[in-house]
Design a protein that fits this description.
Elements lengths: L7 E6 L1 H4 L7 H8 L5 E6 L5 H6 L1 H4 L10 E5 L19 H16 L6 E5 L6 H8 L6 H18 L2 E3 L1 H6 L4 H4 L9 H17 L17
Parallel strand pairs: 1-2, 1-3, 3-4, 4-5
Helix pairs in contact: 2-10, 5-7
């Protein structure tokens, strides 16, 4: 372990998380803003859904660890919301199971420590035409993204944790469909800036003690 020890922020999710440390990605933006204030750990697994996430909770977030994260940002939903295929070769997870999986993730994370804070990111929208043109994919639909996003947000309200509805956040920006994605579903620098901005807003406005807003956290060796 490298010292001094700082608060730990963990990003846990699928490709939206795995790719977030790319240049101008939202994880990289957070790491830059929280430099000398918090250590940001990436636990992103491209292609994963909430069913797979539940299976590794104890390995990624062991309850008996002496040091627990101060903040966990979770993203699952995009792969879950993909339309099922007749051959079963799809990341699709039925909506009811998705909600229960996210509930299990929430319960596990809240049990880690009284001071472990949690933010869920919902599925973002997609550019269906770009997906088809670039990747030849037609199983991702905005109607389903919105349905899963709203269900995740509703669960968060029930569980008392913070939620960022990315479907709604993206759609507040003009020309979002043409600017927020590299291939129709993965985030461009503009899309990542929206995600980072929404996270920073939630953290700043949260009534958490101690505050996890970068402006309130001490700088190491200042």
């Amino acid at each position: 372990m490298v010292g001094p020890r700082r608060p730990q922020f963990v990003l846990f999710g699928s490709s939206i998380v795995q790719f977030s440390f790319a240049e101008q990605g939202w994880g990289a933006i957070l790491a830059d803003i929280y430099a000398r204030k918090a250590d940001i750990f990436l636990r992103g697994y491209s292609g994963w859904n909430s069913r797979q996430a539940v299976q590794v909770l104890d390995e990624v977030f062991p309850k008996d660890d002496a040091i627990q994260p101060s903040l966990v940002i979770v993203y699952f939903g995009g792969n879950d919301s993909v339309r099922p295929r007749p051959d079963g070769l799809s990341s699709h997870v039925p909506l009811s199971e998705y909600v229960e999986n996210m509930r299990k993730i929430s319960i596990h994370l809240k049990s880690l420590s009284e001071k472990t804070r949690v933010i869920f990111l919902t599925a973002p929208p997609v550019n269906e035409a770009q997906l088809l043109q670039v990747l030849g994919v037609d199983g991702r639909k905005n109607e389903l993204c919105q349905k899963y996003a709203d269900a995740c947000e509703k669960l968060c309200q029930e569980m008392g944790i913070k939620a960022i509805n990315l479907c709604n956040a993206f759609k507040q920006h003009d020309n979002w469909m043409a600017t927020c994605f590299t291939d129709g579903m993965h985030l461009s620098p503009i899309g990542s800036k929206i995600v980072a901005k929404e996270i920073l807003k939630v953290v700043k406005e949260a009534d958490w003690k101690p505050s996890l807003s970068w402006e309130d956290m001490p700088m190491e060796f200042a």
